Amino acid sequence: MTPITMVEGRRIALSNLDKVLYPGTGFTKGEVLHYYATVADALLAHIKDRPLSFLRYPDGPDGQLFFTKNPPPGTPVWVKTTPVPRSEDERAEQVVVSDLASLMWAANLVVEFHTPQWRAGAPAVADRLVLDLDPGPPATVVECCAAALWLRERLAADGLTAYAKTSGSKGLHLAVALEPVPSARASAYAKALAQEAEAALPDLVVHRMAKALRPGKVFVDHSQNAAAKTTAAPYTLRARRLPTVSAPVSWAEVEACRDPHDLVFLADDIPPRLARDGDLLAPLTDPGRAGSLP
Hints:
Keywords: Ligase
Low-confidence stretches: none
InterPro entries: LigD_pol_dom (IPR014145), NHEJ_LigD (IPR052171)
Distance between the termini: 58 Å
Number of strands: 16
Mean pLDDT: 95
Strand content: 15-25%
Helix content: 25-40%
Enzyme class: ligase
Number of helices: 7
Shape: globular
EC number: 6.5.1.1
Largest sheet: 6 strands, mixed
Order of helices and strands: EEEEHHEEEEHEEHEEHEEEEHH
Strand order of the largest sheet: 13-14-10-12-11-16
Protein name: Non-homologous end-joining DNA ligase
């Protein structure tokens, strides 16, 4: 029998709690749910007003992976949704997770959480800028850190404050809180910034996605600022062999990174980091910290 758990007055069926989802460590679905419950306050602060896309991996990262934007079949009536106009379906809706009960329901589906750079109710109006630094082997996150430090200073020259997190995969994400602007404007600024980084650091950075250009360099992916694109949310688990997390990191950690393992964080690492440092990305949720694009 599937156990029923009460969360904030909501009945949630939690299934297959002993199922191993991460074969590298034996991390189970029950541990996934425990992780999300433990980091809920920090995670919810970053996703609560944003339409979610889910990368589902119900049989672990070695099983089937599928990306969905529509509310999954069987979504409870108490889970919030928001209209998200799309060119192919003007009546489309997506889930908005704003409380612990909705978070645990979604986590039971075994998902990565992905968000756009805009909030529900204001489609295509960006209040964040994101740069996804993706290393082309043999480059690693070490090279991403070098590119990130240059980008931090360049953003600061425009009066913008950047914050960093690991992608939970191979790279690094930079995020900036913005005064709301059309996504198209944020995209254009991000692309120009990536081009400028390539011009300044031609042996380190590329701004185009072509694989032939990327070996040994850091691809500064600016495309995730487009209104239709999404980025892995802070604190989300990733569908990797180990239960890696897209984890906020300090600039001191970025500056000190000398080995790729320096910036690999697993689920069990995050609660102690939160207890010690708090949410390093908290300024992104404070409207008073938002900067204006030049």
